[in-house]
Amino acid sequence: MKLKLIVCLFSLFIVAAACSQEKPQNKKNLKTAAAANAAKEAKPEVWDKVFDKSDKVDVQKVSFTNRYGIALSGDLYLPKKRKYFKAPAIAVSGPFGAVKEQASGLYAQQMAQRGYIALAFDPSFTGESSGMPRNVASPDINTEDFSAAVDFLSTFPIVDENKIGVIGICGFGGFALNAAAADTRIKGTVSSTMYDMTRITANGYNDTMDKQARYALREQLSEQRTKDYEQASYAKAPGLPDKLTGSEPQFVQDYFNYYKTKRGFHERSINSNGHWNMTSAISLMNMPILQYIEEIEHPVLIIHGENAHSKYFSEDAFKKLKGDNKELYIVPSANHTDLYDNMDKIPFDKMDEFFKKSFNLK
């Protein structure tokens, strides 16, 4: 019974190519190739997002490859009226288990309306991005995905390579901070309604999992690896229920009301319509992120909802940051998923002010 409870808890932790670049020999060739591919590969747009389209923004399908050779799929949001000859740019991803047609696309579109070139992308192994097996999470590779997005943006012809930032939502808020600690090309970082997926997988919500429970989960996952190999397939972790009984924790109901309803459902989203691989938990348990975020020198803005069950992740991450260019902003009366799509709660204007200051824009 205890093991079943642990597996169910783990499932809650987990729940919580069109512009393909070649490998040119120098930066000039890289920018030329990117521009040529962008023009050549642009296709008539079919709007497949869960939010309304802005008439102030153009969108292009793009793809780019990370350091592990995985082709990532993105939507590049371009302001129709550019404020700058070389525009500032932002890479956006998350939430954990979502796709670029959900919250990250909304964030990217909103930032593009404010003058930024914004890239919303699907992480490795999910959505329209490549990588096998499907529906796998990795603290290393998902951190790398942000740097790969920076690779793409820094070589895009109309982007100012010295003015690139990242926004991570939910579990990708943690990966964005992790990338910011490693990649000095990033000049401004926003995490919104952040999870540290490695911490929650290893320790449970509010750090309630003890080492005996953690060892029991490791035993079960180790046995599952053998079964997966024997069966040449991957067992799936439980996901959100298809229907609510009313007895679920409020945060599970909040997730359901976003991912499983017209509000946020998308067929390619793991949280809407699929399951993580159960053994994804192995690396998340064993490889903690955020170990060097106190060494981030550029500005960081951490945003969280006042009423979010996950607020402690942001509060604890903020305590580790150093310098007077770091800020924790608590959104009054907001829960975790309000910061996915609630336009009355998500502080987009504050993010705009933050990036303008970080990039020294006028």
Structure description:
With 362 residues, this protein is α/β, with parallel strands linked by helices. The chain has a single domain (2-359), classed as Alpha/Beta hydrolase fold, catalytic domain (Rossmann fold, 3-Layer(aba) Sandwich). Helix content is 39%, strand content 16%. It is built from 13 helices and eight strands. An eight-stranded mixed beta sheet has the order 1-2-4-3-5-6-7-8, sandwiched between helices. Strand 7 (300-305), helix 11 and strand 8 form a beta-alpha-beta unit. The longest helix is centred in the middle third of the chain and has 21 residues, at 211-231.
What is the secondary structure topology, with strand pairs?
Blueprint (H helix, E strand, L loop, with lengths): L1 H14 L11 H15 L15 E9 L5 E9 L7 E7 L9 H11 L3 E5 L17 H16 L4 E11 L1 H12 L5 E5 L4 H7 L7 H21 L18 H10 L10 H4 L7 H6 L13 E6 L5 H10 L5 E6 L6 H4 L6 H12 L3
Helix pairs in contact: 1-7, 4-5
Quaternary class: single chain
Strand numbers in spatial order across the main sheet: 1-2-4-3-5-6-7-8
Uncertain residue segments = 1-44
Please give the number of β-strands.
Answer: 8
What's the structural domain tally? Answer: 1
Shape: globular
Order of helices and strands: HHEEEHEHEHEHHHHHEHEHH
Sheet having the most strands: 8 strands, mixed
What is the arithmetic mean of pLDDT?
Answer: 90
CATH topology group: Rossmann fold
Instruction: Identify the CATH class.
Output: Alpha Beta
Share in helix? 25-40%
**CATH architecture call:** 3-Layer(aba) Sandwich
| Number of helical segments with 4 or more residues | 13
Radius of gyration in whole Å, from Cα? 20 Å
Strand residue content: 15-25%
**Structural class estimated from helices and strands:** alpha/beta
The H-level CATH homologous superfamily, spelled out, is Alpha/Beta hydrolase fold, catalytic domain
- End-to-end CA span: 60 Å
